[in-house]
Amino acid sequence: MKALWRNMEQDRERAVISWSPFMISLVLLMSIPMVFVLIPRIPPPKTLPGIPNIDETDDLALFRRATLASDEGGEGDGLRRRPASVPKIAFLFLTNSDLTFAPLWERFFHGHERLFNVYVHADPASRLLLPPTQSFRGRFIPAKSTQRASPTLISAARRLLAAALIDDPANAFFAVLSQHCIPIHSFRFTYRALLADPGARPSLTSGRRRRRSYIEILSGEPGLQDRYVARGEDVMMPEVPFDKFRVGSQFFVLARRHAVMVVRDRRLWKKFKMPCLKSMVDSCYPEEHYFPTLLEMRDPEGCTRYTLTRVNWTDSVGGHPHTYRPPEISGNMIKNLRTSNSTYSYLFARKFSPDCLDPLIKLADSVIFRD
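Structure for Core-2/I-branching beta-1,6-N-acetylglucosaminyltransferase family protein, as requested:
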């Protein structure tokens, strides 16, 4: 009887073993429809792309170097005294395409090589087909990917500021520009306008004139509330209360101490680097908020509160300003672009299509650089 029972047990085990592959295959086959049923129920990401961790790590190391290499601390207390040197302007170009207007900028720079430096952040995915001209050759900094509606444009501008701080302690002003920007005055006029700011006040500690930054800082603008909650309700609190949240052009000219302030900042950056909600993509313009908000909170009296780059928003499309075309280019247009409601003339203008280069070159000596 025991032998019979033992044989039955062995037969059952062999049956289970022989049927196991079949059962496994059957179970897997029956699971496939369940996968398609469950997949739609897995929620997609609710936010737009953020900044990769590796990019953030690289940037922090760069910003530490810039802070240590700088001649001024974030609040004007020097890490070491600036050596006697002629102040320079650092021209910082953010681009994702060819620097089409480089020939016009070369005419602008010509003869003033001791008074400026050029730095370019070119998106690694961009295809730059035109060979760099003299002033742009070898001036490209290590760059990371950028895209609209993300804090990557803030990071790119901060990298440019850090690179310029490290490169030359004589850099006194830092002008952020795009490949679509052009100068609308001569270099001599531009340089004198920046350094002769009558509103600059002497420092209480050193007695030296504290140069101001030319950055647009606006409050009470339509849609500002939606921009504030673009990352979610109360996400910006407590570091950035709504009554301190500002908007302004992403193109500006910073004084050196403010450039240092930007690369030193960690407190506000941890809020502005957060990605926006996908549902708020039409209100997500971090690069238009971070810089004016930071300076409004840290040194409002040290800013003119207006930009020196003229932009025409009268017929904007998809968040882009009016793009000037060759038929619009004329001497009167240049003079109109200079006109400002502030105490200063505009010094730069955007946005110009690449085929505007030739008509602009024709006006260079007779109008643009003739002040």
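The first helix runs from residue 2 to 38.
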